[in-house]
Amino acid sequence: MVQLKDGGTGDARAAAEEKGREGAARNAAAQKMTYAAAAAAALAVEMERDARVVALGEDLGRGGIFGQYRGLLERFGAERVIDTPISEATIAGAAVGMALTGLKPVVEMRVVDFALCAMDEIVNQAAKNRFMFGGQGRVPMVVRMPIGIWSASAAQHSQSLEAWFAHVPGLVVVCPATPEDNYALLRASLASGDPVAYLEHKELWGLEGDVDVDATVPIGRARIAREGRDLSIVSWSRTVHESLAAAHLLAAEGIDAEVIDLRTIWPWDRETVEASARRTGRVLVAHEAVQVAGFGAEIVATLAERGVGRVARIGAPRVPVGYSAPLEQVARVDAGKIAAAARGLMQA
């Protein structure tokens, strides 16, 4: 190994140069997009690539209520971008039939709260078909059900129900937190061949970020959003951004927090989370969903069973989300609350 004059090594210098080239190539491929535009772009790529991909739901003709289908009707026509009546059970049921006959439907439920009208089709038909018929039928459908608090939208439009879907055998559960992940994970979900509960956040649609259109993100692999040594904060969806803000607050106090974006709830990346936990010795799971029976309990229990460090969780109180701003804030899991929970874990 050749020693360099600056004290580095030839291997290290070569690795750094290679990393720089990879970064430059990535920057060249990256495009600035919103979370909504990234999803529309991903769907357009898959519809162009595969004629079996169709989209159906309410208001798709005008681009979707968040702009997540903008431009697709004009490009692909009404036979592939299908406006439907206001009946979630009909939409999901039709999509199951489409999937069983060879299509790859993308189902728009507008918000996860409305998907409760289609739970039989999602849970009893889509999720169980492959098992009940010995693999003869598969349901490669992606059900888009935006989760989370939607400002001033009250209790029936502000739920986070990812733990419900994680509890259902046969469903893949995806929760993208960034524009790039919304692009890559939507494509990965369409390629998975199984029914996917695809849970975008209602308050992330306008979030802008770089999107590498050549990047791939495998389902089931987490992302270390911030490296740290003192504790690990595990999160997903919009709460990832609150966790990063909390890590900034903690850093000012000398606490170095690692932040892990889980990306997918099922399957979830046990290896990355456990490795981080063994490095830091403490894990806080933070999510916007109600803490009682939330998916954070699954993560904490798994780590506890494996004897990995000290664990804690923070989620919303078990109350409906209020319409008024003060009541809504009670239900929000924000950076301040996450930082406070992290301080408590550090002192435990």
What is the tally of helical segments? 13
- Net shape: globular
Largest sheet: 7 strands, mixed
Which CATH first-tier class of the largest domain would you pick?
Alpha Beta
**How large is the radius of gyration?**
21 Å
Please give the alpha-carbon distance between the first and last residues.
46 Å
Number of domains: 2
Examine the coordinates and then state which fold CATH places here, giving the name of the CATH topology of the largest domain. Rossmann fold
Let me know the CATH homologous superfamily of the largest domain: Thiamin diphosphate (ThDP)-binding fold, Pyr/PP domains
Question: Biggest sheet: strands side by side, in what order?
Answer: 3-2-4-5-7-6-12
Query: pLDDT average, as an integer?
Result: 92
Order of helices and strands: HEHEHEHEHHEHEHEEEEHEEHEHEHH
| Sheet/helix structural class | alpha/beta
The name of the CATH architecture of the largest domain is 3-Layer(aba) Sandwich
Q: How much strand content do the residues show?
A: 15-25%
